[in-house]
Design a protein that fits this description.
Elements: H1 10-22, H2 29-34, H3 40-71, H4 77-125, H5 129-134, H6 137-179, H7 181-188, H8 191-195, H9 198-227, H10 229-237, H11 241-293, H12 299-340, E1 361-371, E2 374-384, E3 389-393, H13 400-407, E4 415-420, E5 423-424, H14 430-435, E6 437-441, H15 451-456, H16 464-473, H17 477-482, H18 500-514, E7 518-522, H19 530-544, E8 548-552, E9 564-569, E10 572-577, H20 579-585, H21 588-596, H22 610-616
Parallel strand pairs: 3-8, 3-9, 6-7, 7-8
Antiparallel strand pairs: 1-2, 1-4, 4-5, 9-10
Helix pairs in contact: 3-4, 3-6, 3-12, 4-6, 6-7, 6-9, 6-12, 7-11, 9-10, 9-11, 9-12, 11-12, 16-18, 18-19, 19-22
Length: about 625
Amino acid sequence: MFSGGPPYHLGWSSVFDKEKKVRNKPADWKRILRLFKPYAVEQWQLLICLLVSSIMGLLPALLTRSIIDRALPHHNLHLLFWYVMGMIVSSVVAASLGVYVGYLNSVVGEGIIRDIRSELVTHLHKLPLSFFAGTKTGEIMNRVSSDVESIDGILTNTAVTILTNVFTVITTFITVCYLDWRLALISLIIMPLMIVPMWPVGGKMFDARKGIRKKRDELESISQETLSISGITLIKSFNRELLERTRYWETSTALMHQEIKLAMINRWFMAVITAMVIIGPALVWLSGGWLAIRGELTIGTIVTFIALLGRMYTPAASLAGFQVQIVSALAIFERIFDYLDLPTEKDDPNAIELKETSGHIKFENVEFAYSEDRKALHNIDLEIKPGQVAAFVGHSGAGKTTITQLVARFYQPQSGRITLDGHDISKIKLSSLRSHVGIVTQETYLFHDTIGRNLRYARQDVTDEEIILAAKAANIYDFIESLPDKFETTVGERGHKLSGGERQRLAIARVLLKNPKILILDEATSALDSHNEALIQVALAKLMLNRTSLVIAHRLSTILAADVIFVVKEGRIVESGKHADLLARDSYYAKLYLDQFRDGPSNEQPYLSQQAIDAVM
């Protein structure tokens, strides 16, 4: 059904879904706190500044008490002046500290976000190909961008606000106890009513937040699929704009309902908290007024007490609200940690560094399955000698691409082994193995960057002269020189400003710069016109000289000159040999060949044909 192997790794996908269900629990607090460890110095400075700032914030209320009880009753302008100056100075100091706190907070918060984002992307780069084949691109991008940005607010704003509120509540409570212990006890009656609702509401917010993230993943995936060049071309060619609009609308509506649910949970919770903030001071006015009427309390103390209650209740209510936000935010941390906990590609502890290779490849009884019920390869035994051109032919989905992907260790066989120069490739360091492998596929991928930078992706230390030589060898130099910006020309998203043949020749030039000993060509010349194919055939001839080449081609005419042809059928190698020998056997290969050339021989040139070799020489 699918050309060159399956597009989705169903086994990985099912395992990943199962993992997500099992991990339906909040993220580990210790793990979250470890994120702050590299910023210990800034955090200590932050704590000291917050403590001093919270103490400075108490002075205006205390000085107000002195103004009411001492300066005004005695008409003392001198005291009034100094009390007011104390208010001004304390406010300026607190404001200055607030600015510095903001700076430290940004350093810590943005630093942690950078660390998380970098660790996440680095980890994703180390995941096996099966993960990307079984996971939607939109979901991956949502975790890297949207999820990380969501915790940005928690780290840069919520964390410091929580610390500020904690210091404010503690210092204020000590002060109100000093002012009058009776009113302090009365003010505490309201505190449990603020704290009790936090736990059930936190759980509901956690569930709602997870639902929102799931719907955002779906929306991101739809956007990724439909707004890419390939996706929008497909939509327009089938007139499916209305269908995609409906699909996007339905998913957006589901997300809207989840967002409304979350907003209402938060709104009801904050309504209760707001009511408590009003009820508390009312009780203090009642009790304090009764004590003042009896002459046991001054008016200045009551006014100061009420002012300080605002400093205690408002942060306490804010802390309750933050608790709910943090509990729901743990769902986001959980999603990020889920990705960070996925197993990466790892080298064997005793893996070797293979500096040089002759390109001698052997498969020994190799079996591979994408999932338990989907076996792709059965008992594969083959040998490709150094410098040989080995072609793999067969119907789509037979397992040709899977065989070549095993050589680069994009997947691991379940049994058997693959050797390179006698070394089991599972015992060779991945970076070392892949440094010897170059791949050119039908779907050439180019970054949205200049031609020069796309070519330099092969080797960062490549010189301008080497780039020019590679471009000439790939028959693309004259085209590049004809462009106004030459090597500084931007190729567009996925290289769509270039034709298919131009992209293919750039890919060949890029592999030439890498200079691998093993070359994999997966449908490298399919779907090209005769002119482009002729140019690419010459470029491929230069590329394949003195390299071990694994060639996959549906058009058998292009691999007639191969040193060995492996015929793949339903995951098995059913025949092998040279073209003439296979044709003489009058078996499966002969049938494939005759089916393609019923109407006569093709004019297409084979890889390493005499014409191509003459062009190279």
